[in-house]
Write a structure and sequence with these properties.
The chain contains no helices and 15 strands. The protein has 2 domains: about 5-40, no CATH class; about 50-155, Tumour Suppressor Smad4, CATH 2.60.200. A hairpin with a 2-residue loop joins β9 and β10. It is mainly β. The strands form 4 sheets. It has a 6-stranded antiparallel β-sheet, with no helix packed on it. The chain has a 5-stranded mixed β-sheet with strand order 8-7-9-10-13, with no helix packed on it. It is about 0% helix and about 35% strand.
Length: about 160
């Protein structure tokens, strides 16, 4: 049995043990007494992640660019995608606009809105109309301006 969104123990990602059993997570909690007590902590991961899926090729650009990391979406929230602060998901690639797109997670649904970007936002190969929210489903690909460097799969 394997977790679909990974397993974390005390905030650190773990990999499956050869037996499919994970070690116990032990947390130390301070009490009013001088001696700490131990308790088992179980945290269930229900996070969605935008997993990078581009090939990393930046030959079409004048300069090299950093490869993006996975981006974890909390259960509810709004995230701005852009090339610089104050974006939540910063993609330092020239083909990504300063304020490129918006990702909204609410009540188990995810929507992506292109904020008028120069090079567009795409879901499963289809370009989004600007300022219109489109649903993003598990397994779908989303591209923010550059298919090689800024393509993600929602997992």
């Amino acid at each position: 049995m394997f977790s679909r969104c990974g397993t974390s123990i005390n905030g650190a990602r773990t990999t499956a043990s050869p037996f499919g059993v994970f070690p116990r997570s032990i947390a130390v909690k301070k009490h009013s007494s001088a001696f700490p007590t131990r308790r088992n902590v179980l945290r269930v991961c229900n996070a969605l992640v935008l997993q990078p899926a581009g090939d990393g090729n930046c030959d079409h650009l004048a300069e090299s660019c950093p490869i993006p990391f996975p981006f974890y979406l909390k259960s509810d929230g709004t995230y701005e995608v852009g090339r610089q602060d104050p974006a939540d998901l910063i993609l330092e690639v020239p083909t990504v606009s300063g304020r490129h797109a918006l990702i909204k997670v609410a009540e188990g649904q995810i929507a992506v809105t292109d904020l008028g970007s120069t090079n567009g936002t795409f879901i499963d190969g289809e370009q989004l109309d600007q300022m219109e929210a489109y649903p993003l489903k598990i397994g779908s690909e989303v591209v923010f301006g550059d298919e090689n460097l800024c393509k993600f799969v929602l997992a």
